[in-house]
Amino acid sequence: MFKYVRFVVIFVKMFTRAHETAQARYSMRMSMALETVLAKAGLRVSPGEFLGLVEDAARRLSPPNPNPAEYFSADQRETLTEVGLDLRPRRPDEVDTRARAVAAQAVLRDSALTVSDAATTIKVDTSRIRHRLAAGRLVGWKDRGGWRLPAWQFTESGVLPGLEIVLAALPNDQPPLVVAAFMTTPQEDLQLGGSPGTPRQWLLAGGDPDRVAALAAVLGTPA
Predict the structure, then answer these.
(1) Which of 11, 21, 161, 174 has a CA positioned 20 to 30 A from the CA of residue 30?
(2) 163 vs 73, 132, 135, 169, 207, CA distance in Å?
(3) Are 181 and 155 in contact (CB under 8 A)?
């Protein structure tokens, strides 16, 4: 009997070690896969840092038994729904629809520029970036003790053409995620090569910024 018990204990230990080794290898493969995805997306962040951002966004957006729609006004809910976010409460038998919003929030935060990054991009002093933020000529939010500026409003060497016209038209009550979703979602009124283009693509192609401003002005307004 003692020998049998000893055999069982040894078997359990061996199985546990094998399971832990397999789990570690699986975690490593997942980490490498996530690192590849982040690199392809141009996100300058490690898998661990990105997962930390996702966890933080999940805490902000997804408390226990949440109704995501409660975090936005009626107008904001309609706008987010129009750009593809599902804010309905999740049923027990369906995939969590909040995941897209959490991921979008994490990517928005990670891809945002610091004041120093923005200054380097458009080749001005950091004080000029803060001045533009105060004047509404750039948009951003305070996070972890400093400004963060969403990347959609920049090009490789400057600001998005027509940016100031668009920003001047934006309602002040729209959160960064709503604005980012609008600027990167194809709009039927912005045709490029026979297909709907995003406001960002339209402006980069030299399109009339007033067209984008007219659409931006009604963000959050019931259709």
Answers:
(1) 11
(2) 26, 12, 13, 10, 12
(3) no
Give the integer Cα–Cα distance in Å for 5 and 89. Answer: 51
Distances (CA, A) of 67 to 36, 122, 135: 33, 40, 35
What would the pLDDT profile of 165-201 be if each residue is shown by its tens digit? 999 999 988 888 788 888 888 999 999 999 999 999 9
* Residues whose CB is less than 8 angstroms from the CB of residue 181 and which lie 6 or more positions away in sequence, other chains included: 80, 83, 84, 85, 104
Handedness of CA 185, 156, 167, 103 (dihedral sign): positive
Task: Supply the pTM of this predicted model.
Answer: 0.58
Q: Residue 218 in contact with residue 174, Cβ under 8 Å?
A: no
Residues counted in the chain: 223
